[in-house]
């Protein structure tokens, strides 16, 4: 989870409601993935010494997914780590709790895109009467194709837009832009994929409204992604496509280890390393100064790795 600074809002968050939703979301997504893959997810419950724990659900080397990880965590601590309080020093030293669902799916077939989704809540309770409880929500989802199809990107973005529409027309364009800017590899001067939506620091107008928006984003994941899986999972492929998939997965690793705030927070807060690094693909390759042949299907991906309007 990637907490960030937030303006304080009067009112107390409801962790019990949030936890019930997040655990239910994890269960629903796992059930849908098991149905399409045919495998049973492994369940790995864990506890954190400082407080809290989680449940990691995952499969590896399966029929549709080479790795699929759907994680729930609810962890607590006595003092916010630097990644959470750097931009809000007034929250430094606060006790905290964070909970949410995070997933990364790495399909076997290179024509099925990798996908990431995360929805989370963070709270820093008041320590005395002069303080109020700070809370914020964050999350989003983004699509990372290897062999891109415009209709897939349009479907994914349209579903994200429709999920946010009940909350205001400005949310989708704002969160899409945020996603384009966040999932960007500066050292490569390219986007990680075709984007989606991303948000953080959400605490206005109140807890209920922020929680409702976060739920709508989480609930949109399956209709955004599963039709793409069903459409592309049986596309024929060979060693060439698998090699290109492994090469592009290297970019995914670079982003997660260099830029991703969730990875940084997890490691700084003493999180469970095995769960934090489940987002990594099981196989990735790096080639020195390699470029796809001009005009090839592999070269076509470059045209999708810049911010653009999909709908």
From TrEMBL:
Description of how the protein assembles with itself and partners: Homodimer.
Stretches the record annotates as Important for dimerization: 252-287
Keyword field contains Metal-binding: yes
Species per Swiss-Prot/TrEMBL record: Bordetella genomosp. 9
EC numbers, comma separated: 1.3.3.3
Catalytic activity: coproporphyrinogen III + O2 + 2 H(+) = protoporphyrinogen IX + 2 CO2 + 2 H2O
Biological processes annotated in GO: protoporphyrinogen IX biosynthetic process
Protein name: Oxygen-dependent coproporphyrinogen-III oxidase
PROSITE patterns xref list: COPROGEN_OXIDASE (PS01021)
């Amino acid at each position: 989870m990637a907490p960030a600074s937030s303006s304080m809002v009067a009112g107390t968050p409801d962790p019990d409601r949030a936890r019930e939703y997040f655990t239910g979301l994890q269960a629903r997504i796992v059930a849908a993935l098991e149905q399409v893959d045919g495998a049973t997810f492994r369940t790995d419950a864990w506890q954190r010494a400082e407080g809290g724990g989680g449940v990691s659900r995952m499969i590896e080397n399966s029929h549709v997914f080479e790795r699929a990880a759907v994680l729930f965590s609810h962890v607590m601590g006595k003092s916010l780590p630097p990644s959470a309080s750097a931009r809000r020093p007034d929250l430094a030293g606060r006790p905290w709790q964070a909970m949410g669902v995070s997933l990364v799916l790495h399909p076997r077939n290179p024509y099925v895109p990798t996908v990431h989704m995360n929805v989370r809540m963070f709270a820093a309770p008041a320590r005395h009467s002069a303080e109020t409880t700070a809370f914020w929500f964050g999350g989003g989802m983004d699509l990372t194709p290897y062999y891109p199809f415009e209709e897939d990107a349009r479907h994914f973005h349209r579903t994200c837009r429709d999920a946010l529409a009940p909350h205001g027309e400005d949310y989708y364009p704002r969160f899409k832009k945020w996603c384009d800017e966040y999932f960007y590899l500066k050292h490569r001067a390219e986007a990680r994929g075709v984007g989606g939506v991303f948000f953080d620091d959400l605490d206005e107008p109140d807890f209920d409204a922020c929680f409702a928006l976060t739920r709508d984003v989480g609930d949109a994941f399956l209709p955004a992604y599963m039709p793409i899986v069903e459409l592309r999972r049986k596309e024929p492929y060979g060693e060439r496509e698998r090699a290109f998939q492994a090469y592009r997965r290297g970019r995914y690793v670079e982003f997660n280890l260099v830029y991703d705030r969730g990875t940084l927070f997890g490691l700084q807060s003493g999180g469970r390393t095995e769960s934090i690094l489940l987002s990594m693909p099981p196989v990735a390759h790096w080639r020195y100064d390699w470029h796809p042949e001009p005009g090839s299907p592999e070269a076509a991906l470059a045209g999708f790795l810049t911010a653009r309007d999909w709908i």
